[in-house]
Design brief:
With 332 residues, this protein is α/β, with parallel strands linked by helices. The chain has twelve helices and twelve strands. 38% of the residues lie in helices and 19% in strands. The radius of gyration is 20 Å and the shape is globular. It binds manganese (II) ion.
Amino acid sequence: MPSIEKDFNQIINLIQSSNKILITSHVSPDGDSIGSSLALWNFLKEQGKKPKVVMNDNVPNNLKFLKGADKIIKYDQNDNYKGYDLVIILDLNQHSRIGNLWYNLENIDCTKIVIDHHQDPKEFANFYYIDTQSSSTSEILYEMMNEWNSKFINQATAEALYVGIMTDTGSFHFDRTDSRLFQIASNLVEIGANPTQLYESVLSVNSFASLQLMGKALTNMELHFDSKFCMMPITQEDFEKSNTHPGDTEGFVSFTLSIEGTKIGALITQVPEEKIVKLSLRSKKDISIREIAVKFGGGGHNQASGANIKDTTLEIVKAQLIEYVGELLKKE
Ligand SMILES: [Mn+2]
């Protein structure tokens, strides 16, 4: 466990004394990882610095409209990533989440900073700013930028931060959506983030095929323990029949928790090409399902966590999950 001082000044000083700055985030990037990375990129460019965003994976189509998304550099294993003054790692707390890019960054001789909101950070960087009470990395970055100098937050930065916050809060309804967050959102709207446009660009982008898969996933749902637990399994065959893939299940897991009286929800998908079963867990406030994810070798937040389970089957994971959830509910 690294030593963590919640000190923006330390981080701001490090960034201020650097010019060429490499920004990166996690594999399979989402709204918060792309949003926070591009917000910081725009914010630093506004001050005449030379930031670059490098990602292990491609930017999802629905986030490509953000300013700077077309400048994101795809990881190249032959690049030695030398010549940077500083590396800033966003929205993750263990180096495996960076992907193979980590092996290129690991040995370069420059300071590495992690800014994140997940629990249980691992030791791999020089400085950390971690706030597990924060809704998103984008929210932390807003606070940092505000403390630094809010006049550098331009419209592009505001839009990227807004997208990060909107996606990581399930459009402002997850735990840690508090009054401060609405103040921040309000400031971002004032600067030029348009809530209607950003919601439509990022979230109203379902394909017909993914909606057909959703229909199948909804019929697959099972209730257990007096409706307290809802499971949504999706098989390899379901993906094949609808001509979809696991990336098309974005947002599905939230349906499991939308049932009256349900406290715990799980999306379980077979990822055939990688021979793994992917588990996404959600719980309502006051129940933490993080421990269950840890039992499967994963992790995350108290109300949202997950695991990628190797060498198993959907049926085995379902049975284990019912057992673990049963134990957890007994303690309630
Ligand atoms: Mn995040």
